[in-house]
Amino acid sequence: DTGVSQNPRHKITKRGQNVTFRCDPISEHNRLYWYRQTLGQGPEFLTYFQNEAQLEKSRLLSDRFSAERPKGSFSTLEIQRTEQGDSAMYLCASSLAWLAGVEETQYFGPGTRLLVL
Amino acid sequence: QKEVEQNSGPLSVPEGAIASLNCTYSDRVSQSFFWYRQYSGKSPELIMSIYSNGDKEDGRFTAQLNKASQYVSLLIRDSQPSDSATYLCAVNSNGGFKTIFGAGTRLFVKA
User: Fold this and answer.
1) CA-CA to A39 of 20 to 30 Å: which in A9, A22, A60, A90?
2) What 8-state DSSP symbol labels residue B102?
């Protein structure tokens, strides 16, 4: 399978616990995105990496959220001190784009569904 | 005003009919436009991308873009029950990293 993969697929945790999700992008893709999606809404942008550099972070992302992409390959998204409002589907997407203005298509992984009790 | 607006639906069409899905966006410098299909509990999958004014056809799907009116649409011909899903419109500024999604339109195709 050469698509975007995410682990775990489901996570149930208690409020206050820390959780970490992993995303493995399509191997040659240099851009990696994290989104959050709640029921009845479209995906909301959280953060973006160009290779290993995190270039933008949404205002939606509180200080409890941190993402890394060491070596420009896989990425992790950590949520500290989880709250019930963090319950959502966390989606990862990757793309290949080198120049501004170049047409870019993002390919999504299956997502990690988080439930905070 | 939301950055990307879609009618939430549900839009119900009989099998074999044409389904028409609409989307408007607020950022005039937007250059890239996408339609994704999302089945319940699954992640979005790309159906069409369009970058220039006019129509773009791919099989049963046609995307239409009018940048002057800040409007993009998706037509699904010969709709099938398997087309029943939520259709997400997504917009990206020229070279920008941030893709803004609409809330999606739910489509039901009745057999």
Assistant:
1) A22
2) P
Scanning every residue of chain B, which has its alpha carbon at the shortest distance from the alpha carbon of A42? Answer: B103
The residues of chain A scoring below 70 in pLDDT are 1, 98-103
Buried b (16+ CB within 10 A) or exposed e, B8-22: eeebebeeeeebebb
| Distance of alpha carbon A23 from alpha carbon A5, whole angstroms | 6
Instruction: Sort out which chain B residues have CB atoms less than 8 A from A31's CB and list them.
Output: 97
**Three-state DSSP class for B30?**
strand
* Interface touch A42/B98, C-beta < 8 Å: no
Select the residue from A34, A38, A103 to test the B interface by mutation, using most B Cβ atoms within 10 A.
A103
Q: Are B88 and B104 in contact (CB under 8 A)?
A: yes
Dist. CA B53–CA B101, nearest whole Å: 20
